[in-house]
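SAMPLE LOG
Freezer: B-3
Tube label: C17
Construct: single chain, 915 aa
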Amino acid sequence: MSKSITESRSLFEQLYTHAPIGIAVASHVNGRWLQLNPAFCEMLAYSEDELIDTSVIHMIYEEDLHMEEFRSKFWEMTHETSPMYETEVRLKRKDGSLLWSTLRACIVRDETNGEPLYLLVQAADITKQKDAEEILIVQRKQLEESSRISRLLAESSLDLIAIHDADSSRTFKYVSNACKSMLGYEPEEIIGKPGTFVIYPEDVPMVEAYVEEQRKGLAPKRINYRLLHKDGSTVWADTITHYVYDSAGELIELVAVTRDITASQQQQLSMQEYRSLFDCNPLGVASLDLEGNLLKANMGQEQLTGHTKEELLSRPFDHLIDPVDLEKTRYHFEETVKGNAQSYEIGLIHKNGQRIETNVINVPIILEDKVVGVYGITSDITESKRYVEEIENLSYERALILNGMSEGVIGLDLDGNLNFANPAAAEIMNFCPSEMNGKPLDQMMIQMQSEGIPYPSKDTPILQAVREGRGLPRTESVFWRQDGSSFLAEFQLKPIMDQGRTRGAVLVFRDMTSVKDIIRAKEAAEHADRAKSEFLAIMSHELRTPLNGIMGMAHLLMETELDDEQKGFAEIMIDSGESLLYILNEILDFSKIEAGKMDLERAPVDIKAMLGGVIELFALKASEKNIELYYEVSDHIPERIRGDETRIRQILINLVGNAVKFTEQGRIMVSVGADFSDEHGQDNLMLTFKVRDTGIGIPIEKQHQLFQSFSQLDPAINRKFGGTGLGLAISKKLVELMGGAIGVQSEIGEGAEFQFTLVVERWLEESNDPIDITTNDELQLDRASLAHDIKILIAEDQAVNSHLLEEMLRKFGGVCDIVENGAQAVDSLNKVQYDLVFMDIQMPVMDGIEATCHIRQSHPDIPVIAAITAFAGAGDREECLKCGMQDFISKPFHSTEISRVLNTWVPYIRSQRVT
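STRUCTURE (predicted):
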């Protein structure tokens, strides 16, 4: 082989020696170097002798050495399936540094017999090229990142960023996404429109003039004006405009940044209203610091005291108060500084020296949960006090009144001693009136605390109030007489004033002992009501849990391959379960209304859309019975009114459902009319709903039973049509709860017309109440892979329900772990990082609420926790969300509810992984 190489050398000796690239010859048998040219040796910084007989692969950097690929390519060249192998690798120099190189290898063969002679290798240094490529990649990434950040800033900014052409119309070229939240438009709806497209029409001339002035440098940088929202409402805006010029100085475009300042405009309006309330108030109004110095005073305060504003401000209030009332005034001021509003009567000294009887209201000024000052509101009550004093001086008439009163009346001096008592007081306390005068009140009767412990002597609330010259509002307390008997009293204390001085107090009280039985009966009724509510809640849980298993398994069964008979059986199971659930919900609704716990919403309602939904609900059933079902809505009804859509729909579903049930042929017509009479109020209207059918009709003598609870007109009708007899009773109570009325007109065989009226508020367009808009084009995740790669934990003590939920999740691509109580759930989360937990509420050892509280201490956001409970009340939902759960499913649940939870939270879970 060496001889062959020598014979061939003459063919490429000059090229080999002087080539700028490395050329080398290696053995095709063992892969060791046989000969290398100077360029190759210089490239690696080795001498040729150092490289001879070393392995070719030893010079290749380990990370770039792919032996399987090298062997495969060498085999292909040896067997002539590939003429050459070319690759880019890093080579190791003698000093340990690396250089990038392009390697080309081929097999040199004998020209006569074609046998392989040796491996020819060429190497070119491409390090500089690689470095340049790396720099270019970094620069490209930086440019892309800079563009991405600029785009994100524009699209994420709450301010509206717009670019306008420099034409006469200032046409929109670009609009950021903020236009959706600020103006209700999509960017595509604005782009291409003139710059005045969203400007409030009355403000267009002002904006046009501003632009012209600003281009001349004569206007400020920003302008405040109004924009017109897509829904017709007004948005106050603050805009800064930047003008972009080309190299020739010609204007090419305008960049405008607009901020929504509607809230600040409203705040300014509120401040103006406050200033009007302060400055124009006929009463004396002043603001004071925490030391009692007057900081602001209105004209009413100047007129009341006779002092000018300069004389009032930056001085304590002491010089304005009658010295006899100064301590009392300071006491109430200090209470206000503690955050407690005060109302009391004192005397002010006018600048001319005259005493003025006044009523003072002190209100704390609270900023960021801290009292920073006090408002004082003072009114002149001199004339009313004088009138009261004249009445108090009518002693004879007073005696007649006091003696004729059924309540006990006691006069007390400032030490708490009795100075008069009417006959009723003497009878209640079991004393002779002549024995009572001059005796301390605490010796006549002892006031008890709520715990049944007597107040300390001379320190009862009544005696404290007498000494401080203040009154006590009407309240109840237990008193003990001297003979050891007790009575429950309702009492009220009023101070007695004489020439502005407190002379004592009047205690008015009455024996409430005879009312005790009524109170006990009331408490017993409340206890019974609570017991009924608890019983219904427990029964709801106990019924919903097995019902969940029955209906859930039936739904799963429907998703399997069934013949027609089996499918019919499963449908019967589902229909029966739905009927049982409907009955259960009716009983719970009735219980809530009876207990007075049914809360009504005040939200926007689209009457036409709601009524269309009710009709659509019964359309299939009516079609099956060949009944014509349609509705009419008066053109005078506004697009939206304010009310409780859920409850109005519930009433209509009951009435239309009954009409469909009891009508075998003919038609059913639902209509809604409106009455805008002034008797309903300026912003109100009365809606009249009518449901007319051609059904079996109702006897006149039995129509009064229709709206009674659990009432059926005829057992035969009940057997044929079914029902609990609660639907119309619930409808009546809901209508009355909303302030309306319901009635019926019917004759046997002539059908029936049910009618109910509701007085509702008009929905004002300028209202800031949010309107929930639900779209049907939201992207849904693929059902089969909905829960793919999501780690799920089921915490449920009922094996049927946990198995049911596991099967449902399996159909969504989920794999679950199951535990039987909250303690096991907490322990599992300490060992495994789950993404989603379905948590039952009622479980042994540790319930779902307590378990969630433990989990949220160490896992604040993930896993997402969804409550699964048989308790279906709004309070139960609030309790679950309050403890850290993020979703809520009521038993019995369907796969649609599980799908909703997954569609809602799986994207969030995956986004959390990315962050």
